[in-house]
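Interim report, section 4.2 (structural modelling).
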Amino acid sequence: MSPTVLHPLAQDYLERLDRIAGERLPRSERSDLVEEIRGHLAETAPAGTSDADVRTALDRLGSPEAIVDAAAPAVRMRRRGAHEWFAIFGLLLGGFVIPVLGWLVGVILLWTSRAWSTKDKLIGTLVVPGGLGMVWLVLVLAATVAVRGSGPLACSDLPKPVVRATVATSRSGAAHIGRITVTHLPASRACVSSSGGTSLGDVLLPIGLVALLLAPFGTSVYLAVRAQPHPA
Amino acid sequence: MVDASQLRRGVLEFCVLALLRDGERYAFDLVRTLGESDGMVTSEGTLYPLLTRMRKEGLVETTWRESPSGPPRRYYQLTPVGRSTLDAFAGEWARFRDTVDTFLRKGQP
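Predicted structure of the assembly:
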């Protein structure tokens, strides 16, 4: 049995329905719906029907959007399934389980999920790349630098020689070095103190590190809240 | 203009069950009958997702049959669950309708 050839307008309508249904419905629901509507159009708008009659038939059928809207709630929707939870877990802690690769798995799961918008996915990826594993690495590095910075080896105990030269100009215009002096500054002044200071950096650095530590947790909560209903 | 779409949506599936009480019907025939009933349906196409949902809920079942012209047709018929759901609704609806009528007449129960 060959399928009925539809009027071109009806065929266009059916293709539009198929496209919209493809964006919102799982494959089986989509083909089911399109076949039902094809059957309807085979009755009301086969090839050879007048344009006016086809328009009336399509009008009674309603817009493809409205039909897909009516079908969408029939589909089981979910906000967060195993896919989404593994994505959040991978982004936060994946870097600890398998360095770099674990986080990448989280990123892939994030971008393949239909629960999040592109904006959400960008935030999930960029705050913070590498997740807690990366934050941990940064904190360790910062701690190492801080320990070295406050250590006695940070500045030389030796007095720093300061060389001064004066340039004299002779009457003929030729320049020559007039006098060279070498003086020694006291050790305490040659060394830049890193303790006891209340410079801006000393305040901002810990705040920045704490923010860095909290950011991946914030992202996890954000992603869990922002997950949208999508077909399970 | 009173927007009775919510109310209509609520009772539509029972109307489908009622149309199938006396035997199976072709999907298009079912949709046309509802579409031509005054005030029941604004968009015939939205009935197909309803039929799909009712099939999944086990209220109706379908059979494909060859048609004298064109592609095979899908026929709908009641399941035992569909039939008992219809009977239960018919009783409930009568009570509901009487109560609403009483309110409308007196403004008091």
